[in-house]
Write a structure and sequence with these properties.
alpha/beta, Metallo-beta-lactamase, Chain A, 9-stranded mixed beta sheet, 8-stranded mixed beta sheet, 9 helices, disordered N terminus
Length: 355
């Protein structure tokens, strides 16, 4: 009995010593982590490098009693063990993507702000001149502009980390590389005058591992990027564009990049379109795709299997589970899991077609 009491006491001390400690810590284990944070139809992706440096891409909605702000801070502080965010970028100027940058700077701290440049007006948002005031103040009008070909200067350790801009302000990377065998899958849609089409797209390379995120880039610009040649090459991990909406995710792009794993940052009633799911099913190398939410209006048989959906219910019952993709220190493999307790599924990094 005394031995049992002693064992229980030791276990209790271990639990207490770990209270408040991060669940994952890339700076200690040499891994590159991508946290896809649930902002219910917006976007917020937190990257933590093996050097302990952090980059937040987009920041969700600013309302809903601070829901998205608190979810981002929780993952950054309690899960990833950060004391501030080193870099924060904006893919484009819609409120569900830059809505919490100012509040994050005030409550948690942001080092460097990145965007493609701030427009004076936004045709689809009459309130934009007022909404951008807080961002300008938080960045002290000192945000750094991202153009095609630029790189976000994240530090590398023994495995090289590179982050390059592929699209920005409707401009795309030089059309070089292998011919895209899926270029004829592009059927032009009406030109998109919205800021979605001006999204910043980023390609991450970590050793052999590759990850692509395109913000809310829309159909015709996606085709422009990969037609007739594919300068992107193939990738391991793909953040499904524009929450899985059908005005994005052109098969000419999705099939050309041929991801092994995809993560869809949709909401219960935003994104996750049937046509996008159909395109994902066509991807030759795709093993699994994850959804932050089940699309409540779409038959479950058309979506990812239940075990790959982080939040299956309504907004009212949502726990805000996140998805983590964690890349091994040498970039040769990676795991993906839902939340802290979800099973880790392991994938091997492929040999890629590059430009």
């Amino acid at each position: 009995m005394q031995r049992l009491i002693l064992l229980f006491s030791v276990l209790l001390m271990v639990v207490r010593s770990n209270l408040g400690q991060p669940l994952f810590a890339s700076s200690k284990d040499g891994r590159l982590d991508f946290y896809f944070i649930d902002v219910e139809g917006g976007a917020a992706t937190l990257i933590v490098t093996p050097e302990g440096e952090s980059l937040l891409i987009d920041s969700g909605y600013p309302d809903n009693q601070g829901r998205d702000l608190h979810r981002i801070i929780h993952v950054a502080k309690d899960v990833a063990g950060l004391s501030r965010i080193d870099h924060a970028s904006v893919s484009h100027w819609h409120l569900d993507h830059f809505g919490n940058h100012a509040a994050l700077q005030a409550e948690f701290g942001i080092g460097t702000f990145w965007d493609r440049g701030i427009p004076d007006l936004l045709e689809e948002d009459a309130k934009f001149p007022d909404r951008i005031v807080a961002y300008r103040a938080a960045s002290q009008n000192g945000s750094k502009s991202l153009k095609v070909g630029d790189r976000i200067p994240l530090r590398s350790g023994s495995t090289r980390l590179d982050v390059v801009v592929l699209t920005s302000g409707r401009e795309v990377a030089e059309n070089k590389g292998p011919l895209n065998p899926f270029k004829d899958r592009h059927v032009a849609q009406p030109e998109d005058p919205s800021d979605n089409a001006a999204s910043v797209s980023l390609l991450f390379s970590f050793g052999d591992f590759r990850f692509l995120t395109c913000g809310d880039l829309t159909w015709n610009i996606e085709a422009k990027l990969v037609s007739p040649r594919n300068p992107v090459g193939t990738v391991d991990l793909f953040m499904v564009t524009h929450h899985g909406l059908p005005v994005s995710n052109n098969p000419a792009l999705v099939l050309a990049i041929d991801p092994t794993v995809a993560v869809m940052c949709n909401g219960p009633s935003k994104g996750g379109a049937e046509s996008t799911m159909k395109t994902l099913r066509e991807v030759n190398s795709l093993k699994d795709w994850y959804q932050l939410h089940r699309n409540l209006s779409l038959d479950p048989s058309l979506q990812a299997p239940a075990e790959f959906i982080a939040n299956p219910g309504t907004t009212e019952t949502c726990k805000g589970e996140w998805v983590l993709a964690s890349v091994a220190p040498d970039g040769k493999s990676y795991t993906v899991q839902i939340g802290a307790a979800g099973p880790r599924r392991e994938y091997q990094t492929r040999t890629h077609v590059r430009n």
